[in-house]
Amino acid sequence: MCRWLAYSGSPILLERALYAPAHSLIDQSLHSELGAEATNGDGFGVGWYDEKPEPGVFRSIEPAWNDQNLREIAGHVTSGHFFAHIRAAIGSAVQQTNCHPFRHGRWLFMHNGYLAELATVKRDLILAVDESLYPSIAGQADTEILFYLALTLGLEDDPPDAIARTIGLVEDVGRRKGVEFPFQGTIATTDGRRMWAFRYSSEGKSRSLFFTGNVARLREQYPERDILQEVSDDTRLVMSEPLGDLPAAWNEVPESSYGVVGEGDDQLRPFRAKPPVTSVAVPA
Amino acid sequence: MCRWLAYSGSPILLERALYAPAHSLIDQSLHSELGAEATNGDGFGVGWYDEKPEPGVFRSIEPAWNDQNLREIAGHVTSGHFFAHIRAAIGSAVQQTNCHPFRHGRWLFMHNGYLAELATVKRDLILAVDESLYPSIAGQADTEILFYLALTLGLEDDPPDAIARTIGLVEDVGRRKGVEFPFQGTIATTDGRRMWAFRYSSEGKSRSLFFTGNVARLREQYPERDILQEVSDDTRLVMSEPLGDLPAAWNEVPESSYGVVGEGDDQLRPFRAKPPVTSVAVPA
Amino acid sequence: MCRWLAYSGSPILLERALYAPAHSLIDQSLHSELGAEATNGDGFGVGWYDEKPEPGVFRSIEPAWNDQNLREIAGHVTSGHFFAHIRAAIGSAVQQTNCHPFRHGRWLFMHNGYLAELATVKRDLILAVDESLYPSIAGQADTEILFYLALTLGLEDDPPDAIARTIGLVEDVGRRKGVEFPFQGTIATTDGRRMWAFRYSSEGKSRSLFFTGNVARLREQYPERDILQEVSDDTRLVMSEPLGDLPAAWNEVPESSYGVVGEGDDQLRPFRAKPPVTSVAVPA
Amino acid sequence: MCRWLAYSGSPILLERALYAPAHSLIDQSLHSELGAEATNGDGFGVGWYDEKPEPGVFRSIEPAWNDQNLREIAGHVTSGHFFAHIRAAIGSAVQQTNCHPFRHGRWLFMHNGYLAELATVKRDLILAVDESLYPSIAGQADTEILFYLALTLGLEDDPPDAIARTIGLVEDVGRRKGVEFPFQGTIATTDGRRMWAFRYSSEGKSRSLFFTGNVARLREQYPERDILQEVSDDTRLVMSEPLGDLPAAWNEVPESSYGVVGEGDDQLRPFRAKPPVTSVAVPA
User: Fold this and answer.
1) Which residues in chain D come in under a pLDDT of 50?
2) CA-based nearest distance D69→chain A, Å
3) Distance (Å, whole) CA B221 – CA B244
4) CA D245 to CA B246: how far, in whole Å?
5) Minimal-distance CA residue of chain B relative to C96
6) What is the ipTM of this complex?
7) How many CA atoms lie within 13 A of D130 on its CB side?
């Protein structure tokens, strides 16, 4: 479907995470090994935090692998907290407003996976978005709906709870409409200080998700790697698929779990969708 | 806002209507004289009928004036029934799914104007779209909402009635939300046999709309014009703004009226919006 | 690198050749099996002949697999003679003017392969283009240079001779500049009546090339295939890679040879590059 | 033709110069008042310097006025030295490689104007580009040819001399080919420390060019303008057309002259093209 990367730690040029390593994210846009599709050529996006109140977002419908502007921006923008995403469209149009990451205020949101049978569940889900948020929806991607549902259900206050309730709602609406496995995927979201990454699917066979481990230990293992000398101990990278050149650096996020990164508070916890207490009305 | 052209009559190469005349539609993309904006550079679209059951549609986000592909298609596609539109975006994104004309089955639909305060009325209008049609909405343009409301309200059976009820609904929702003049614009729609063109606005000061008159008489007035020798007597062009080189050829569609063209049934009639009998519920 | 398709025969909707078959050209844009790269996502083009003096050309920098406009045009344009090409860029920019097929007057030209070390040989080759043709060069692709060299060397009079001299010139310039294997690839060119397809490389290991055989015999082998009942006996398809569903239909063009298709004159002949009699001056 | 802006001074967010003022450059993309064309919608570019050895460049073929990515970059990139350009194409294709500013190493280059009868002079000018620079030419714009000629003729050592010799060469080639007024326009170039802006045309009626005067004096005149309180005394803006809100701030660059800005070395001097001592051979 898609591939994504989330970085938190010492400020670096984006290109060091996006282009430099073997089997980099940009390389994965042409040759993904673990993805559902080898090619992720239906647009891309990066979102980065700096001293401004809101993150910057650069999104394009071109394939990432040959995009000259992405190369320029990645070579000139430095950030200690950024998201990047490459897209393989399934159903919704290839257009900027459907590219990840999505932004609302200080928040970024991206996803690798899908809402099964979107046409069947879309209207009921859109209706569950808060009316004041509804006009901000700019595209037609299933992920944007997820994001606005999560914002409706408290993302800014308690991200794990909001994501659990969002997916619970998707499963509730889907199942009552006859969809066997309504949700699939990994989700990353951040407010620019901490980031949360979720791995979950209704059928229990979720898209892959990996994170880098202890930097101090990696420094010992790979003393020749400059980047490891430069970044702080709490630097973390979370990705759909490992970068290729440091196999020992990567740990898999277990099925049905989520991680928190940032502010010295790294954790890995079990994740379970929370069905709505009162069901959303679905016509028979 | 936008400019559009609707052609019905003898099959011609699209370029003869789009590029050839002075002050052509493509020229109007750079230098509109009567439009709310001089520049209509936020994408364009053409829709044409041939022997296939559904019309072809070519839409792009590039400005029309320099688009090489539009030139190619216009120089190689022949049709006796086609729509063309150039866009000046106000609010919704510059993307193919927001470009006119919109298509559903055999129907095409385009618009020059706007729904006032779209963010305020959008959700209620979307809710009024038939559930079976809702998943086909691919973009976020106000015109696409109008189209799907019209389809919901019987466009395929009685276009003037459906448009009257659609605008009536827009006005009803808008006014209850405090919007003074909810609808503005001209609309063209067709099933490939007949076309309907509407000029209406809630404030009674509508965007301009013109149509060509009797071809037999024009032939006498302009005997040197090849195109007039070639096309049949029932050929009609309806446009936001006249082509520049045959001033005597153009009649203005009066305020609050609509015309029907095709199958020997040309008519010009008064138009009035029809408010909904039972109001759509709008939270206080 | 790239993949291409050339069709000559009974007029058909482009989509029947581009989309319909298993492992279609559009499918090959995502999943090529024989190409140097599995993904051909750096733009595409189609060129088709109709009753107009020059062929129409539609080119885009989007990946072909998700391009809505290509789908529309392929679903509404009928032709008995057309080229289609999907690109995997190597070096030159992803832009319309670098997309194949290239056109000059009635002629189309496309290529799968490369000029080795283009930066080294480019200036000398450009200088060999006829001065009157030079201003028509609109992009920076190696294939466009090949095309203009071929036009300079007599393409319109004797295509096999002109291509042989063009590649001979490329090899001559390249070798004197220290390039071991200057030319690689397959080339197709046509004037709308006949088409010529070449398979050649300086190292004798050329990109793959296939053509369909006798339609009458195929009709017997695959009686259930509608398309074979519809097309004339002299219909031919030449492709970088076979369509997947009729294995028996495809013959490989042998190494260092070329074929002519059209006007009842199908032939397969050996091909040899012709070095220039008088060398182009190359500074030491 | 085009409009451009060159900024040198205290580091600011790009958006403060590109979007903030009345009649801003982005506004001029839709509504230029002094340009040869009111609309400059055929792409744009920005180039900015930071601590990296080479400037960053972001170029796009979309109209600047609605480009979301330009807004993002302008809202997050801070620089004390940058160029911005909006394009109205005349002749060469609308593609990124034809968008200004052009870059070579540390140098940026942009232009508002044209080489008259480009097709007539192009080949001879291209031949005059140094062979080692020739392969770096990526597009087909007349301005890119100017840039590579200037690099060939010593831009990096003595910009005013190199530009004078470049335009002298253009005039020499042009006149021998029967072009009455071969050069028209304004040019800006910079190495990231100083910038040079030229106003010249063969016919002595050059495109407009303006620069801001003494900041200390402006601060007194406009005490309410925050931006003037923030920027240093040596901050300078050079533009095709003044920003609209500070009329007293702008001085016109006189016909046939050039200015230098940067490193406390602001100067305004007469400019004269320097014909080549030995003419480039032009076939009769």
Assistant:
1) 284
2) 6
3) 16
4) 42
5) B68
6) 0.91
7) 13
